[in-house]
Amino acid sequence: MACLVLLVSCQPVSITPAQHPFKVLAIETFLADIAQNIAGSHFQVSSLIPPGVDPHSFELVPQDMVKLASSDLILTNGAGLESWLQITLTSNTINIPIIEASKGLTNRAPKSGEIIPSNVFTPAGQILDPHFWLDPIDVITYVQNIRDAFSIMDPANTASYASNAQSYIVQLNALDQWIQNEVNTIPVQNRLLVTNHETFGYYADRYGFTIVGAVIPSTSTDATPSAKQMADLITTIKTNKVKAIFLEMGSNPDLAQQVATETGNRIVESLYTHSTSPAGGPATTYIDMMKFDTTQIVSALK
Questions:
Q1: Which of 156, 229, 276, 297 reaches 20 to 30 Å from 287, CA-CA?
Q2: Residues 36 and 66 sit within 8 Å (Cβ to Cβ)
Q3: Hey, is 219 helix, strand or coil?
Q4: What pLDDT sits at residue 110?
Q5: How far apart are the C-alpha atoms of 287 and 295, rounded to whole Å?
C-alpha cells in the first residue's frame, strides 16, 4: 500500500507504522466519531475542537498545541475548513502526518437560480465549500481515506480496519436512504433553505433542496454581510415564501433575527452541522447528528 503524504512545515511527512497506544487526533468531533467507527476497539480517536464549537473560528490554546505535537496522526476535514492548522504547525515546527478526509472529492457547482457570492468560486467555476460531510455518500470517501491511513499506521490490523469501514459504509447508505425518505415528506415547493452561512450545499444537492440564500453569504462564518446583501436576502425570502431560517448551534443569531423580523420567518437555531452534541445530547454521533438535523428541517418545512 502506498504511503499517504502531506506537506507540513515545507517538508514531506509520511505515515509510518506507529507504536501502541496510537494517538489519533481528529480536528472536529463529527470526524472523530467517523474515525472511531473505523478504529473500532484498537484505539481511541480524540477530537481537538470541543463539541458545539465552530471550526471556522476556532482559536488554539496552549493545551491544544500539546495535543497536536503528541499525536501520531492528525485527521482533518480539509478543503479549506481548517485553514489555520498548517500555519500553526509550520510556525511551531510540528511535523505530524495529516490526513484530509475529504481528499478526492470535488467541489460542488452552483445550481440554477442559486445566489452565490463571487468570492467563493474557484477559477473553474466551482464553489469552495468544505462541508462535504453533510452528504453521507461523500462521507464514504472520508471512510476510505481514514481506513487507508489507519492501515498504514497499523498494518497488522489492516483487515480489521477494512471490515469496520465496510460496516460503517453500510450504515451511511442506510442513513442516506432514511434522509431521502424523510425529505420526501416535504412538499416540493417548500424545499427551500436559508441558513446562517453557506453550509448545506452538498446536502441540498443530494436531497433535492434549493439554496435560496444565507444570512452570511460565505462558506465561512467569519464573513460579514453588507447592507445590500441583507436587503436582497430579505426580498428573496419574501418572494419565495421561505418558511424558516436555519442556524447552527453556537451561531450568533443577531443577524438572522434581523432578517426574521423583516420577513416574519421562524428561526430554527438547533442544528448540529459542524459538531456533534455533548454527551447526553441529541446528536452525539455523526449519524445521530444528520438524523437530528434532518428531523428539524423536515419539521420546519412540512
A1: 156
A2: no
A3: coil
A4: 79
A5: 12
SS3 content of the chain, % helix, strand, coil (to 5): 45, 15, 40
Residue ranges of domains in the chain:
5-175, 184-301
- DSSP reduced 3-state for 149: helix
Give the three-class secondary structure for 49: coil
Locate all alpha helices (DSSP H) within 154-192, ordered by sequence.
Answer: 158-183
Fold of 5-175: Rossmann fold (3.40.50)
Q: Is 154 left (phi over 0), alpha (psi -120 to 50) or beta?
A: beta
The position carrying cell 490554546 is: 61
E strand or H helix at 33: helix 29-39
User: What is d(CA 255, CA 218) in angstroms, rounded to the nearest whole number?
Assistant: 14
Burial class (CB in 10 A: 0-12, 13-18, 19+), 158: middle
pLDDT digits (tens, 9 = 90+) for 100-144: 999 999 999 878 767 666 666 776 777 788 999 999 999 999 999
Domain 184-301: homologous superfamily in CATH: Nitrogenase molybdenum iron protein domain (3.40.50.1980)
Looking at residue 12, what is its pLDDT? 40
Residue 106: HSE in the Cβ half-sphere, 13 Å Cα cutoff: 6
Q: Which of 74, 80, 111 is nearest to 95 (CA)?
A: 74
Spatial CA neighbour of 195 closest among 211, 209, 182, 179:
211
What is the pTM (predicted TM-score) of this model? 0.90
With cut-offs at 50, 70 and 90, classify the pLDDT of residue 3. Answer: very low
User: Cell 469496520 appears where?
Assistant: 164
- Mean pLDDT taken over the chain: 88
